[in-house]
Every structure is written in structure tokens, then in C-alpha cells.
Amino acid sequence: MKFSFMKNPLVWISGYALVLCSSMQVQAIEFSGYYRLGAGGTTKGGTQSCFQLPGARSKYRLGNECEQWSELAFSHESEKLSDGSTLSGMVMGGFYNPIGHMPKFKDSNEHGGGSSRIQQMFVEWKNAAVLNGGNLWAGRRYYKRNDIHMTDYYYWNQSATGFGFDEVPIGDLRYSYVFSRKDDYWQNPYVTRHDFNVNGFKTNPGGEVQVGVSYLQKPGGEDKHSGWAMSVQHKQAGFLGGKGNTFALQYGQGPGTGMGYTGNTKLDKDSKSWSVVEYFDWQTTERFGGQFQVVYQKDVRPDGDNSRWLSMGVRPVYAFTEQFKLAGEIGHDQVKATDGTRKLTKFTIAPTWSPSGPGFWARPEIRLYYTYAVWNEAAQRAAAPDTTLSRTGAFGTDRHGGNFGVQAEYWWK
Predict the structure, then answer these.
(1) Are the C-beta atoms of residues 103 and 69 closer than 8 Å to each other?
(2) Which residues of the chain have pLDDT under 70?
(3) Exposure of 232 in the CB half-sphere (CA atoms within 13 A)
(4) Which one of 34, 136, 227, 283 is separated from 13 by 20 to 30 angstroms, measured CA to CA?
(5) DSSP assignment of 262-282, as one string?
(6) Contact indicator for 89, 38 with CB cutoff of 8 Å
(7) How far apart are CA 277 and CA 262, in angstroms?
(8) Tell me, what's the pLDDT at 366?
(9) Of the candidates 56, 155, 41, which has an alpha carbon nearest to the alpha carbon of residue 383?
(10) SS3 411
(11) In the prediction, which pLDDT does 4 show?
């Protein structure tokens, strides 16, 4: 469900609040959210133009985000039942607008305009005795989203509009199943997905393996196909003082080559993709933290349009005081495709004020940044007209360029 922006998006959110307040006790409503806001320019004198390699599934975010994004959510625990289970609900609105020539929110019908959408709206029955303490939900939901923060890369994401049995314990393991339709709002045609997960395989102290299988039913049409994907990941808690280490392996066929999402339904079983993901964050001292990632993906297509994507990057953060940090980021993407090997390397330095403390994950943050990137001729040839890396983009025939600006980021519960 997609809506165009109103002149003032706060009116939209206020409407949600009034609906909730009319049927619930106001004091029981929880408000949470996220935003990243900013403005910047290029060293060529134009508005900010972000760097992403053609064929890469993500980009390194620090000093490299050309949009305003906000999520505002209301949740409510409406009922506590006699068996100890609870009924709750959530509604979340998402608001997007590009940075650049349009410094204010504009209607989605206008050139360069933004959009608004109901990102989540679901009800959940938690800790149900009939499910042995598991959960049952229905609606539109962010669900089992596995992502790398520094690139915002959702490599395994089962967010859906549908219903599911969540984390139902049987023995030492926890089982989940989701039936969904059209997992992405831009998906065409609608696709029926079945996602099945098993969590809780204890491998070592602090280590756990999760396994998931997705089956995508063939939609209507002679040129459409079914597909499937499988993901296995190991999570290690207590790694270098941070949130942990994650190592994941993925495989998909047909539309399952999207792996974390629904892929192209015109791809048959001869289309295959493999992926390896490794990332961790660290907080080795109170003032020194960061995040590191490596992603490798190989795509094989029957028409010969094969590719290999490699991404490596690190974001170290050092706090000189309780509130002042210096963040840096180096990211390299490389795509080996039929038209050559494309390369992009991006560097960012960002003095940061963080009133909540010196840790890597402490928010809010307000950052000043300078970003510099270099790319090769193959990347320039592959870039779509008028995009950053193209010959008609912000930097013309040059294969290097820079951005500068300010950004604020905050999440709260």
C-alpha cells in the first residue's frame, strides 16, 4: 500500500495517533522511531551525488546517503490473557525524500518527489500457551531482518505481508513459519512465499546456528517460474566486546536468487546465486569501536550474463571525549561482469557529536563529513546515464569526486 506525501507528513502521523488513542488508553501506547536527515554538496559545486557501483547490492553509507528517511511507530499491548499471553499491535509509517534539488518534502507525483508508506501494521499474540510459548502474528511486518549496518545491506530479510508462527519452541530448537504475498511493494507480479526457519542449534559457548528455507510459488503466466533459497548462518555473541560476529552462507535458484527477497520471476531453475557474508562489530575499549564486513556473491545466468560481486569495508570510530568522536570509513566494491571488472573505492572522514556517549552504537549523532571516491572505466561505462559514476553525472568524464555535508541520525524506543 503506497500513498503520496501530504504537504506536512506530521499530519499523517498525527492521524495515526488519533486513531490509536480513540480505542486505547493513551498511557499504554509506546512511541518509537528512526530518522536520518542531512544536506550536502559535491566538490564540483552541485548537490550531493552518492557513490554506488553498478551491479553491487549495497553502498557504504557514511557520508554517502542522498535521501531523508524516517520511520515513526506506535505500538500497544491491548490485552493480557489468563494464561500469561498478550495481544499487541503496531503501526509504523515510513517517509522518504531524496536530498539534492528538492530540499523539502514534495508529493510523489512531482519530479524528484518522495513517498510515504505503511511500513508495518500487524497484530501479535505473544507467549501463547497453545504454541508452547511461541507467537502468532498477522499483517505487514519487519520480520527476521538480517542486515549489515554500515552498508544497510539486508542479505536475509523475511519481512512480509501475511501471517506467521514465530519462535515456537520444540525441545531445544525454535521453529518459525511465514506465509506471505508480495514481500516488496515494488514486486510485480504478486508472489506467494513460504519461509521456514529453525533457530537454536548450539555449536559452541555463545554460538548459535540458524537455518532457513524459502519457497516461492510460480505466479500466473507462461514465462514465470517457481524458485527456492536456503540460508545458514552462525552468530557468535560476546565477540570483541561488540554485538557479535555473523557468518552466513546462502544459495538460491530461479526467483530464489534474490535470497533475502523475491527475485525476478522470469528466471528459471538454471539461474543460480551463491553468497558468503561475514561481518562483526567491536568495542574493544569504551572509546574505540567499529564494524567490518566482507560480502561475496556469484550469479550464474543461462544467457551468460554472469557476475561476481566482492565488497570489503571497515568503519572505525574513536571517541576523544564522552561526546566527540571521529568516524572513518573505507569501502571497496568490485563486480566482475561480461563487460569487464568494475571497481569503486570510497573514503569518508566524519567528526561526530554524540551526546549519548562514546560507543559505536550510541545515538543520536550529528556528523560533518567529507567523502572521496575513485572508480575505473568499466564502472563508468556500466553506469546509467546521469548517475554519479556516468560520463553525464555530477563529475562528468572524471573518474573521481567528492561530497561534503552534515547528517543527523537517531533511533529510539
Answers:
(1) no
(2) 1-27, 100-113, 183-187
(3) 4
(4) 136
(5) ---TT--TT-EEEEEEEEEEE
(6) no
(7) 19
(8) 98
(9) 56
(10) strand
(11) 40
Which residue type occupies 366?
I
Beta-carbon contacts of 153 under 8 Å, excluding residues fewer than 6 positions away, are: 57, 58, 147, 293, 295
Strands (E), 286-399: 288-300, 307-319, 324-337, 340-353, 365-375
- Smallest CA-to-CA distance from 294 within 306, 310, 283, 315 is with 310
Complete DSSP assignment for 36-99: EEEEEEETTSSB------TT-S----TT---EEEEEEEEEEEEEE-TTS-EEEEEEEEEEEEES
Residue 24: its pLDDT value, please?
46
| CA atoms lying within 13 Å on the CB side of residue 330 | 2
C-alpha cell at 378: 568499466
DSSP state of 103: -
* The predicted structure's pLDDT at residue 330: 98
**What is the structure's pLDDT at 104?**
41
Query: Do 348 and 370 form a contact (C-beta atoms < 8 A)?
Result: yes
Cell 550531493 sits on residue: 48
246: which DSSP letter? E
- Cα Rg of the chain (Å, integer): 22
Q: Exposed, middle or buried: residue 46 (CB in 10 Å: 0-12, 13-18, 19+)?
A: middle
**Confidence (pLDDT) at 111:** 53
| Total domains, the chain | 1
Rounded Cα distance, 169 and 192, in Å: 26
CATH of the domain at 72: 2.40.170.10
Name the CA dihedral angle for 357, 363, 368, 370, rounded to a multiple of 10 degrees. 110
Q: What is the pLDDT of residue 186?
A: 65
Range of the domain at 172: 2-412
Q: How many residues are listed for the chain in this entry?
A: 413
Residues 6+ away with beta carbon under 8 Å from 303 = none
Q: Using the 8-state DSSP alphabet, how is residue 19 labeled? A: H
